[in-house]
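Per reviewer request, we include the raw input and output of the structure prediction for the construct analysed in the revised manuscript.
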Amino acid sequence: MSFSKEDLEEFKSEAVEILEIAEKSLFKIEDRVDFRNSFDAVFRALHNLKGASGMMELLSLQNHVHELETIFMQFKEANGIPKEYIDFFLRGIDGARTLLSGGEINFDYNIPKEVAACEVIPLVEAIVLQSNSPSALDEFVSEGCEIIE
């Protein structure tokens, strides 16, 4: 299917807005603001961009966003996302912007070992967050990762 230049420009404009929503929502997650709504906003943004980019035949963008969405879904039942993952998803959004503007990326979808070792932390965060401040939670996560390593 062939799209006009105007169709492609309209898609890119909307895609930029979608990426901005995802980015702002990731910052809210990082700041521990309304996790469930922020999580849902990021998921919708990734899911919609994946579908729309496929429809527009931008397959490298579709594949990239699909990978991000798959990794993001690991946190569906969590009450938070570790900072290392937030940074990963923010880099992924930057990569999507590059692809959207016609550039190429070499994105590593593998989570570093020190992050992977801490995957249990989102499950524990719900318990700790209920009775502690965010700074206490950050200290707990940091110490927990050191112990696990």
